[in-house]
């Protein structure tokens, strides 16, 4: 048992609060796992902010709306699902097999293997990528995510999967694209395109990616300075 009272004074705190692995383990168990997403949506909804959920399995994401409603009710607000934004990995190709190869076998797979999967595993969050709790952690690979969590495949397959996610979470308003650096194969990445109306009654897919970008950032960023419009242009903010 950690006696936190001995570690926190009126004008200083003990360095072990930042270095003790036991404290980190308690933080993960009592704060992070127990309610970080819930608290985030709860507080933002109370203030009228638009909710956004990240790219975890649909069953887990579906639970976020309850916290939105609880937070909004505390300030007398009525949240709208049309304001809810979901982030997803998306890759569209001519065939399902080609999309799987270019996504899990490309930069999307590399990011998952080298960064995102180890990150989630470090705080025991891999379970929220699984479509069933009995799936071994070792089975959660980029290929697994492409088949169960990502929107990957032909246009018809992606539209079908998007509709399934929409139905499973109970409806949302906007789909945000999780972007990846496909500089070695930009044409493949630019195939990711808006799927208007695919998100169900009243919903739409708002895909933001390189193919839709019209701002020439190269003219705004130099070796030793950047243009002030990066901070003032509403298109860049959007």
Task: Give a brief outline of the structure.
This protein is mostly helical.
Q: Top keywords for this entry?
A:
3-stranded parallel beta sheet; globular; 238 residues; 11 helices; two-stranded parallel ribbon; mainly alpha; TIM Barrel
Major β-sheet, in short?
3 strands, parallel
Helical content class: 40-55%
Question: What are the secondary-structure elements, in order, as H or E?
Answer: HHEHHEEHHHEHEHHH
Strand proportion: 5-15%
CATH superfamily: Luciferase-like domain
Count of the separate structural domains: 1
Helix-and-strand structural type: mainly alpha
What is the molecular shape? Answer: globular
CATH class: Alpha Beta
Alpha-carbon distance between the two ends? 48 Å
Q: Which residues form runs of ≥5 with pLDDT under 50?
A: 193-213
Rg from C-alpha positions?
A: 21 Å
Per DSSP E runs of 2 or more residues, the count of β-strands stands at 5
Tally of helical segments: 11
What is the CATH architecture assignment?
Alpha-Beta Barrel
Strand order of the largest sheet: 1-2-5
- CATH level-3 fold name: TIM Barrel
